[in-house]
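TA notes. Do not distribute before section.
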Amino acid sequence: MASMGQDDPFLEAQADLLATLNTTRSLFSSYLRIRSLAASASSPELAQARSELEANLHDLSSDLQDLIDSVKAVEGDPFRYGLDIDEVGRRRKLVEEVGGEVEDMREEVKSLANGQKRAGPNASALPPPSAFDPDAPDGDDYEAFEQQRQVEIMQEQDEALDGVFKTVGNLRQQADDMGRELEEQQEMLEEVETLAERVGGKLQTGIKKVGWVIKKNEETMSSCCIVVLIFVLTLLLVLVIIL
């Protein structure tokens, strides 16, 4: 077998073709899955999957046609291009297998499209999921079930809102209690401040009286009277504070 360089255009195109083929296989599998689950052949999700698959099939067919032309070009004289018979056979087999797989996927997509045209634009090519379940409810029962489910959902939402309202009410009650406690503490502080002002005023008055007595009784003999007066005044102030 003649050696082939790594820059062989066929090998590069072959790698691109196989990469596109793998992507197309994934899209084809996704398309089949969506088609099996779709309630209607006109489903937007199904239409999008079919559109992406057809676009990839178109690109894959274009790449495949280039490889087919390349194989046909070397089949007449493979040795001229540094190829042997086995390599040409391998390449021919590759394009035939890929071409067959592409054709199968395209026929599968066309079969659904043709079924839609025969059934009409408003007809569904796929039966609803309930058609495969003998125990599934019919149309009227299903509507009743949906209505009941909506009622249950609304009841659950109402219960949730009631819980929220109760929580808000508790928070409001706690805020009111805290407000009343603050007001009571404010009143107590005001009473203490008033009492302190009253006692301070009495102390100032007493001090002035003591000063006046001291000035009037500067002689030594009146010292005892001053001491007695100071003692009496102090005693009176203590009684006032206690009472």
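Switch to the second chain here.
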Amino acid sequence: MPDFFKGKPLPQSVFPPDTEEKKKQMGDFFAGPASPPDTAKKVPELVKKLGEKYTGVEKWGSLGMCWGGKIVSLTSQSGTPFSASAEVHPAMVDPNDAKGFKVPVCMLASGDENPEDVENFKKSLSVENHVETFGDQVHGWMAARANLKNERVKSEYERGYGVLLEFYHKHL
């Protein structure tokens, strides 16, 4: 896993960003070491190096959760090294990003993502896609915030990963 943040991750104490100070810290982080445009520029070289090491790989797919979803959007444009991309509970959903997608995409949104942004993202896609909102799930339900002791969360967690597996099986 590459260290995109150069050894300076956002402290866990900032989560959830429920105060003005924490919101500012998060904003500063996304404008600094976690800048999506700056991070996206690093991805093609990373994939190139991985391809040199793993010469048997014929197709690459990407998966981004939260902030990583924005990176997926930015790296699925013209010149992408990926054959398929997926975003799970993505942050910073922008329908303008969807217009430039060049590969099939799967987006699994939570109930916390802006439904209008997700719908407009889907409408703006011109590539094959699967866009679905898991409306009763929280942002992070397929990652660190998954409460797998809750049967409903566990069921949707498993269903979400099943959707991803089917999507990648079809496109990679």
